[in-house]
């Protein structure tokens, strides 16, 4: 019998799709911001599907290219996100509502979008922080405790970890699985001795590195499962010091 699909195994698109679907249906039924009075249910459904779809899609893109460990880049990405969403909604509203126009409406909308974005991402941060963390102890191997997060059939010698949006793709000799956790938390749980962060989105187990190589003049690590892991310039010296390059 196939193993039930859990949140740890959901593909990257599943959670954003569910968020889009639920929020679209809720907005279409409730009709916030006077859309209930001026639009039919089918029109509200199309209107909110477009607005929320653009918001969720851009949010996924920003999450993929930003990092809280680079505060200025993270803030800049979300400023661009808020301006982009505000512009999209302003244009759609100008086409749908005859009374919608002018900079006053734009800045009013900008405030609403910024407030909602702050609330949503604060909620995401809280949910991430509530994920159980691996406790360190002297008598239990931290890797074994970390691997308990994986489905039984995916537990094996750890190879590498890759950050994907709010998830981590954990790769072992037995396969790979997604878990909801931040890369920095995973690195803290595993400790500094067994592995090394070689990129903003990549951590490798030192003993799982087969060799180093060059790919398009950039340093990469070839793992024992033949996967390729990039080494960023910012982590190159640490990789050299660890004997990986």
UniProtKB/TrEMBL annotation:
Signal peptide (UniProt feature, chain positions): none
Protein name, entry field: HTH LytTR-type domain-containing protein
Segments passing through the bilayer: 12-33, 45-66, 78-100, 106-127
Keywords carried by this UniProt record: Membrane, Transmembrane, Transmembrane helix
Stretches assigned to the HTH LytTR-type domain: 160-245
One MF annotation (Gene Ontology) recorded for this entry: DNA binding
Source species, domain of life: Bacteria
InterPro entries reported in the protein's UniProt record: LytTR_DNA-bd_dom
Record carries keyword Flavoprotein: no
């Amino acid at each position: 019998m196939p193993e039930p699909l859990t949140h740890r195994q959901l593909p990257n698109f599943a959670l954003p799709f569910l968020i889009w679907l639920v929020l679209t249906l809720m907005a279409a039924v409730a009709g916030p911001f006077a859309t209930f009075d001026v639009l039919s249910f089918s029109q509200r459904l199309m209107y909110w599907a477009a607005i929320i779809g653009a918001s969720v899609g851009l949010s996924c893109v920003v999450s993929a290219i930003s990092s809280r460990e680079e505060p200025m880049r993270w803030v800049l990405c979300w400023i661009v996100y808020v301006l982009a969403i505000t512009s999209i909604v302003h244009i759609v509203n100008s086409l749908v509502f005859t009374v919608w126009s002018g900079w006053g409406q734009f800045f009013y909308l900008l405030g609403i979008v910024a407030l909602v974005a702050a609330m949503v991402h604060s909620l995401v941060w809280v949910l991430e922080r509530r994920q159980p963390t691996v406790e360190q102890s002297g008598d239990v191997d931290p890797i074994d405790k970390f691997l308990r997060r994986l489905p039984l059939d995916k537990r094996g010698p750890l190879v590498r970890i890759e950050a994907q949006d709010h998830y981590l793709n954990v790769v072992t000799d037995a396969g790979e699985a997604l878990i909801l956790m931040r890369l920095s938390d995973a690195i803290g749980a595993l400790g500094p001795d067994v592995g090394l962060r070689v990129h903003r989105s990549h951590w490798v187990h030192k003993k799982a590195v087969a060799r180093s190589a060059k790919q398009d003049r950039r340093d990469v690590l070839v793992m024992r499962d033949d996967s390729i892991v990039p080494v960023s310039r910012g982590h190159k010296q640490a990789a050299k010091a660890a004997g990986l390059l």
